[in-house]
Amino acid sequence: MDYITVRQAVEKWGVSERWVHKLLEDGRIEGAVRFGRAWMIPKDAQKPADARKIRNKGGGGKNA
Length: 64
What we know:
This protein has 64 residues and is α+β, with helices and mostly antiparallel strands. It has helices at residues 6-13, 17-25; strands at residues 3-4, 33-35, 38-42. The chain has a three-stranded antiparallel beta sheet with strand order 1-3-2. The longest helix has 9 residues, at 17-25.
């Protein structure tokens, strides 16, 4: 399996290095492996969805 570094994931996904580390620490990147202080991320890993975003289902919101 081919791996990429955290910095390569940052460039690929367009997010901050801190955010990638947070995703890794939370176990949200499938197949990622830690070697000492370094993380290796599978090359084909997908960027996890941002769990902070609220998805509007069209129900009684503020402007309804």
